Structure formats: C-alpha cells, structure tokens
Amino acid sequence: MEFGQAVLEDDRGRAYVTLHTLQAAPLDPIATSEASMLTHLVDDHSELVPLLLRLVHPHPDKGMVRALPVAMDRYGITLRLEHPRTHHDVRLPFKTPVTDINQAGPQIHALLTTARRLAHSGNLLA
C-alpha cells in the first residue's frame, strides 16, 4: 500500500493534501503536548471552560448539556458543545499562530482575558 494523499475535513469543507505537501508542512509545536494540556485544563481548571464559552458566537443555547475542550493546535482551541442528542465543535482561534510551545500558555491566557472582558461589558452567556 502506498500513501498518496490525505483528506482534511472540517466545518468549511474537505481538502485533499498530497504526500509531498504533508511532508513539507511545518510540525505543529503543540502536537506533542496537546493531550496533556487538554487534560490539565479539564482536570485542574474546569471552571475556565464556561468562561471560554463567552467567546462562542452565536452563544450556545440553553439546551447544551456540556462543553469540553477536545483539540488544540497552533491556531487555537476546539470546544465540543454537547446537546442531548447531538454535538458540534467550535473553534476559538488564538490571536496569532503559536510558533513555539512556550507561546501556548500566553495565548490561552489571552483568550481567557478576552472572555473576562466580555463578562464586564455585559456580554455574559444567557
């Protein structure tokens, strides 16, 4: 079997990437730490996930039963919004892509700061 291309699919559609393009792509600096960072967020800072929901537009409806961080890469965090019979993922982009793992913490803190500012401007999640 020979690998010829990869298929990337998200909410914007599907894209085909050749093996050459995939091999030439720079490694994501968060890739090797993603699982531990998401686990740390859920286990040690779960109170921050509802704060991040303030950045979701349109705001989640009252039928949502749970929100979980499910992915993180150089471009941002993905939250899964769970409803009784379905779920959907939302992307919270960082202001700039992370080029070094040491930038991940400050980028996450910037998202949280923005969410806190929304709380003080009267834009709370209903």
UniProtKB/TrEMBL annotation:
Coiled coil: none annotated. It comes from the Bacteria. SUPFAM superfamilies: FMN-binding split barrel. Gene3D superfamilies: PNP-oxidase-like. Residues 35-110 form the DUF2470 domain. Transmembrane segments: none annotated. InterPro entries: DUF2470, Haem_oxidase_HugZ-like_sf. This is DUF2470 domain-containing protein. It comes from Streptomyces himastatinicus ATCC 53653.
